[in-house]
Amino acid sequence: MPTDGFDWNVPMTRPVRLAISGASGRMGRALLSLLGDDARFELVHAVVAPGSAHAGQPVFAGDADSLRYADDWTQAPALDVVIDFSGPAGLALSLDHCVAHGIALVSGTTGIDAALEARLADAGNSIAILRAANFSLGVAVLTRLLREAAAALPGWDLEIVEAHHGRKQDAPSGTALALGHAAAAARHTTLEAAAVYSREGQTGARTDGSIGFAVVRGGDIVGEHIAMLIGQGERLELGHRATDRSIFARGALQAAYWLAGHERGHWQLDDVITAPR
Ligand SMILES: NC(=O)C1=CN([C@@H]2O[C@H](COP(=O)(O)OP(=O)(O)OC[C@H]3O[C@@H](n4cnc5c(N)ncnc54)[C@H](OP(=O)(O)O)[C@@H]3O)[C@@H](O)[C@H]2O)C=CC1
Ligand SMILES: O=C(O)C1=N[C@H](C(=O)O)C[C@H](O)C1
């Protein structure tokens, strides 16, 4: 059994029939490069943006017999699970298809507005859904550590700094927001009450108990998050640096394998991860 922290001991009698939404993107390509060696899955549909130049092209370049990209769900075959890393508009379409056909949905898409959040929440009444702002094991552990530190140091100022590549569409990152929610809950408050998303000009002094966010964008940064707990005369920093998108892809594939066949409802990456504790 691999020792990568996920529980791989799920018996399946046939490959899981998988669709990827956002298949031509950075995360889509990371998923495709892992799927070539993964007998647990049969990739049967690969969705790109409506009207995309990728539509009709082979998913595995150079292989004329390969599955071809589709720019909608109309020709999708029977599926066990969809993995979505497309963006909010693509996720809305993936969700429609999954709900209409009773298909499990794994999504890593971030930057979702309140209306789509509400639709996703409601969809848990009819299909199995697993969403995570970050599919890496390291961030799962970082989140646990931050909860503990935020509770243990209630009077220390908390600032969350994140850095990503220059093409990222949303800010702060989904991971930064998830870290903020976890820390706020550990301090018996909410991120809505505590968050400060921007500072400029005559800001006045820092509000006690607030959680500040700072955002860096540039080049090819895969994803970095640092939570600073700042006291008087000392500072605790908890951080994670992703250097390869395959960590997110591996986590999403494991989540999809685990979720296929699970009953309807909302599931968490923590349900899939069995170690470390
Ligand atoms: N949870 C996690 O661990 C991670 C989450 N993410 C999140 O995943 C999402 C995608 O990131 P990334 O791969 O960098 O993005 P990219 O911009 O590289 O890729 C986006 C993909 O989605 C497709 N797409 C765009 N619009 C639609 C649509 N309306 N319907 C269907 N497909 C569409 C694009 O197709 P086309 O090429 O034709 O334009 C492309 O394949 C983001 O929300 C990001 O924050 C990213 C990394 C890790
Ligand atoms: O867009 C990205 O690239 C990433 N997005 C996720 C986020 O918003 O937290 C996860 C990861 O940091 C990469």
UniProtKB/TrEMBL annotation:
InterPro entries: DapB_C, DapB_N, DapB_N_CS, DHDPR_bac, NAD(P)-bd_dom_sf. This is 4-hydroxy-tetrahydrodipicolinate reductase. Pathway: Amino-acid biosynthesis; L-lysine biosynthesis via DAP pathway; (S)-tetrahydrodipicolinate from L-aspartate: step 4/4. It is found in: Cytoplasm. NAD(+) binds at G22, A23, S24, G25, R26, M27, G108, T109, T110, A132, A133, N134, F135. (S)-2,3,4,5-tetrahydrodipicolinate binds at H165, G174, T175. Residues 16-135 form the Dihydrodipicolinate reductase N-terminal domain. Catalyzes the conversion of 4-hydroxy-tetrahydrodipicolinate (HTPA) to tetrahydrodipicolinate. It catalyses: (S)-2,3,4,5-tetrahydrodipicolinate + NADP(+) + H2O = (2S,4S)-4-hydroxy-2,3,4,5-tetrahydrodipicolinate + NADPH + H(+); (S)-2,3,4,5-tetrahydrodipicolinate + NAD(+) + H2O = (2S,4S)-4-hydroxy-2,3,4,5-tetrahydrodipicolinate + NADH + H(+). Pfam families: DapB_C (PF05173), DapB_N (PF01113). Its EC number is 1.17.1.8. SUPFAM superfamilies: Glyceraldehyde-3-phosphate dehydrogenase-like, C-terminal domain, NAD(P)-binding Rossmann-fold domains. It is an enzyme of class 1 (oxidoreductase). Belongs to the DapB family. Keywords: Amino-acid biosynthesis, Cytoplasm, Diaminopimelate biosynthesis, Lysine biosynthesis, NAD, NADP, Oxidoreductase. Residues 138-273 form the Dihydrodipicolinate reductase C-terminal domain. It comes from Rhodanobacter panaciterrae. The active site is at H164, K168. Homotetramer.
